[in-house]
Structure formats: C-alpha cells, structure tokens
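hey team, just a heads up i'm posting the complex here instead of the shared drive bc the drive is being weird again. everything in one block, sequence lines first with there labels, then the predicted structure for the whole assembly after. its two chains so it's a bit long, scroll down
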Amino acid sequence: MSPLTLRTSALALALAPFATGQANELNPDISVVLDGYYKQNATALSHREEGFGLGHTELSLSAPVDDLFEGRLTSVLEDHDGESEVELEEAFLQTTAMPWNLSVRGGRFLSQVGYLNSRHLHEDDFVERPAVYRALLGSHYFDDGLRLNLLLPTPFYWQLGAEAFDGNRLSEGDEDIGVYTVNTRFGGDIGQSQSWQAGLSYLRNRQIHGEDDHEEEEEHGHEHEEAGHDHEHAHGAAYTGENLYIADLVWKWSPDGNTRQQQLTLSGEYLYADDLNEFAGSGDSHEGWYASAVYQFAPQWSAGARYGRIDLSEPHGDHFHDQVLKETDVMLAWSHSHFSTVRLQYTHQDGEGFEDADNTVMVQYVLSLGAHGAHGF
Amino acid sequence: MASRRHLITLGLTALLALGSPPAAAGLRVFACEPEWADLVRKLVPDAALTTATTAWQDPHYIEARPSLIAAMRNADLAVCTGASLEAGWLPALLSRAANRTVRPGQPGLFLAADQVTLYQPHDHVDRSLGDVHPEGDPHLHLDPDKLPRIAAALAERLAVIAPERALDIQRNLLQWRVQWNLKRGQWRRLARTLDGMAVVVQHSNFGYLLRWLGVEATLDLEPNPGLPPTAAHLNRVLRSAQLDRVQAILIGSYQDRRPADWLAERSGLPVLVLPGTVTEEPPFEDLAALIDRLVETLVAHRQAGQPGDVRPMGQRDAD
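-- predicted structure starts here --
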C-alpha cells in the first residue's frame, strides 16, 4: 500500500459524510468503482488472471475548479503478484468556457482514438476489451499530454480533435512528444428510434524507429511472452507500429427511443498498424477488428455476443512471426439498479502462435459507489 | 494557386454559414423535456426548438447522443428540469458541446427546479433507498401552482438572452397566465369531486398534480424509486389492505404496462395510461391540455369506478 493510497482513502473517508445532501457543493464528487471476478482458465493477451481476482478498482474525484476549468483525478488500484499498485489513470484539467466551442484538456487522460478507448473500463459490456485493443492499445491507452477538440457548427454532430502525448505509456523511447493523434467523429439520429456515430482516428507513434528502441521493444515483447499477461497493462501496448489507423461505427436502436426499456447496440472497430520497426516490409503489419451486439431486452437485463480477430506480426530480430487470435464472447448481465451489474461471460479463443489461448467462463461484478458521472454515447 | 485558396475560403465560409444562422434569425433553444419546450413556445413562438426527450421516453435514461450534442452546441439557451433528473446525461452533453454560453451558472442554462421549492428534499439519502434525489422530487412540471412561477422566471431569463424581444415575451407571458389561471380555476372545482380518491402509481411522475388535486398515490408499483417493479413487490401491493380504497392504476406512457396489467387483472382495477408530458399533438398538445385530460380521466373514474381499460385517443401502444 503506498502512502498515496492511504492518503486518498483517508481523504475519501473525511469527505464521505458530506458526500450527500446539499451542503457539499464545494467538495469534489467522489466515485468508487468496485470490480471483482472469477475466471476459470487463463487466456491469451488477458489482463485478468485465473481464479478469484480484482479487476479495475477505481477511485475518482472530480469537480468544477472555477468558471473556466474542471478537473478530474482517477486512481486505479490493481493487484499484481500479490502487491497492490496504485496508478494514476486520469489527472487532468478541462476547459469549460473556450470560445468557438473549442475545448482543451491537459494532464493525464485517456486518448480519444477509436470508440472504446476514451470510455472507462467499467462502462464496457464485456469483462475485457476486444483482443485487438488488448494487443495494440494495452486495453486503454492513457498518457500525459494535451488535447484540443473543436465541435464544428454544423446541424449534425461533427468533431475534430488532436492530441499530443509523452508516448512512454504506449512504448518506451526518447522523443519528448512520442505520440500524437488526430481524430474525427460524426453522428446523428435516424428518426426517433435510431442513432449512430462513426469515427476515424490516426495515431502516430514516433518512438518506434531507431536501434535502441527496437532492442527495448523486442526485449519487452519476449518478457511479455514469458510472463504471460502480468505487466503489460502497466507498460502499455504489447504490439505497436509507427502508424495506427482506427475506424469505428456504433448504431443503437430503442423502440420510441426509450432506452430504459429496450436497446440494441451494434458496434465495431477496425484497427491497422504498420511500420512495426526498421526491419518491417510492406507486408508486416498488425491488423484486427471486432463486432459486438448487445441487446438490453429488459430494464435490468442484457445479453450480448462479440467476435474479434487479430493478425499480428511479432518481431524476432530482423524478421516477424505471424500470430493469429480469434475470440468469441457471449455474455449475460443483470443490473439490479443503475449502479450494480453482475455479468456471466463465456470466452472462446482460437489462436495460432499463442500457447495460452483457451476457453473460459467468467463471472464479474461492477459496482459504482458515490457520484456516478454521466456516460457518453 | 490563388484561386484554389479562394475556393477553400469560400467553401469554409459556406459551411460555417450553413451551420450557424445569424442570431437575428431566431432564438435557438434546447429543451431537455417537452414541457419546457411548450413553455418556451408559448413565450417565444418562433424559437428554433430542439427537444431532447418525448413522452414515450424515460427522462432519467437519455443518452448524450451525437444529435443532442450538436443541438446543444448550437443553442442560445437550454431549459431543463434540474434537481438531478438529467444527472445521467445532461453533464455529458454540456461538456461535449463545449458551448460557453450554456453551462451551469450562466444565463444560458435555465433549471426549472431552481425556481421553486421541491417536494421532499432529503438531508440524507443513500442508494439503498432507490433513486432518491437529495434536492427533492424533480417531477414538478404538472404542478398548477409552480408552473406560473417557472414560466415567469423563464420569461425573465429569455428577456436576458434576447433583450430586443423582452416586450413580446412579457405580453406572451401575461396571455399565458390569464389562460392558465382560468384553467386552474376549473381544475380546482373539479378537484372537489376528486378529494379522497386513491390511485396506484408507478414512480412519482404525476405526484405534484395528484397532491394538488387531493388524490392520494396510495401504492407504488416500484419497490424503490427508480427500480422496475418486481413480482415480489407486486404481490405485496396486491395483498395490501390499502388496495381496497384504490380506484385506478395510473402510469405514464413511457412505462412498461405489464406490471400494471398484472395488477389490473387480479384486482379488477382500470389501468390509465397517460403521457407524463406534452406530446405536441392534440389532445396533449400543451401543459394545460394535458392537465385537462388527466383531471377529466380521474374524474371519470371517480364517478364511474368501473373496471376496464381506458385509452384516451392519441394514445400509442406502450410496447
């Protein structure tokens, strides 16, 4: 337990008595997410070990700072080999009153590339992110940097965004600005019952080229192979490329737009990475996609299926080994209230070049205590 | 080269012009719920309105979807209920829209709940009580006494946003008020026949109006506020001694009608499915008309008290 954890929990305790009621408006909103699971077998590229375990335990504080800024701090407590690690996942300021519908975010935050990456893990419909996210983005890529977003004055939704990051949380290197991204997103409604959103993202990893970096990359890759799934979360992505392209599409349907009663969500993403290192030829790339369908058929129940596939090129000196992982998930979730979810999931993996590909049953709970931030689309 | 740059500039200008009509063209208002759109329409008839929800949607569970972000981005004023009713989506909308004029503490965000005192504010809530709002019950839009106060505050706010139309707004408010007071007199008279009536409800959607009319919401199909009805709870309601005094089951049109039907089948009580808010079409085209229909329906069941299913015209199937 680090001093930081103790201090934050003491802070939480001190603030808790005032967390409800109306006299609390000067205190930040506090929210805690508890995530626990049981997993029958270990699986490939997974961040969750077999047996009983804790997933992504979050403590988050957020509040308007003044009339120009709001701030948010999210710390994540994770267990690795019996040791608790505290990690800062978010610590950012966000502007609220910029002209021309600009917004700036600075500090540490989740990159907005793709559809899933900017969402918190506890909002997900499945126990783990799709394999392609686990391989290429370390499940969710967050880093220290700066973001600028512009919402265009069109009658439909159209956003342009750019981010610059330190980059060391994706792959290690010497560049001051190791990663930058550009992203556009648009969307709208089709009648009363349907809505959609599409996005295109590009992530440039400037730390990939160069001899030293390559050594480190390779070493890291082997380490990952040996240690299985231990530390890749903390160390960023296991597979990287200089260029990463992402296309995403989400479509939702509810009768009369009443999402409380029923909702069908179809979503899918395609990711492609190339220029893996200085030995990479035109055919060496990482590629992956997933498609997911989740049907909330009653206010408290939802069922879903997801299929995903990745084709990876694992660097070995001056050549690459092909790896393929196909993953199918089915899940059933029960949410007694808006703040509690219990999920049963079966995952089937079919891998080439992955010795630990396996099938598993998982049971997971996700509980959210305290303030519950509004979710995005 | 020069001509290409010229073309790009032209294209950009056209794009910007397409998206943002000049302010003089009309006031752009984002209404979180249809009841506030109705008030805005009464005060500024030519306002360009976007309404985020309909009577067939549960206002607690709206998504901050792209179309709403775009509408919020382009709005001069947002009119919402407040009191955490929209806690699950409004903060995300405001933040994503990054509209500096529409945000908490600015004239561009009008919250109806801030203009009046709410029923049952709580000093202490925890989630084991269900979805209880510490500020008080936010479903205040059918209260015949609170609405004039909200309308007056809204008129004042609209005049701040569009000072050049202050006179028109004031005149429209007076007109609305005169008609409202006439209506309120009628409802008051009808309420005498309703005094002591008891109904089963689902959530507190109609709570403010029922209390004003003297109709008791004796039983609730929800086990805890915001949680869907369960079989165990419905059985408790069915066995409750208070059910004998009840004359009808009243639910909103966005709610699943199966629990109400289940109870109706076993108790012989009529199910009244009415929109919880205005639908922009007769016979629920505005707040006065909606309250008219609600009061009429209750009066009809107070007098007749006969079992059966009542579906006022214009009512869509709940499923």
